[in-house]
Design a protein that fits this description.
Number of domains: 1
Structural class: mainly alpha
Order of helices and strands: HHH
Strand content: under 5%
Amino acid sequence: MLDFEEELKKFKPSLEVEDIEDAVYQEEMTDVMDLLNKVMDQQKN
């Protein structure tokens, strides 16, 4: 049987996940509201 406490002590997150997290937070991403605002602005013109 697994000892979850022991397994958690061994756990180390992969570096790729940390790199992706940093990249996502540094990027200014367009969200759904930004897209909707663009569409509405284009329809007005």
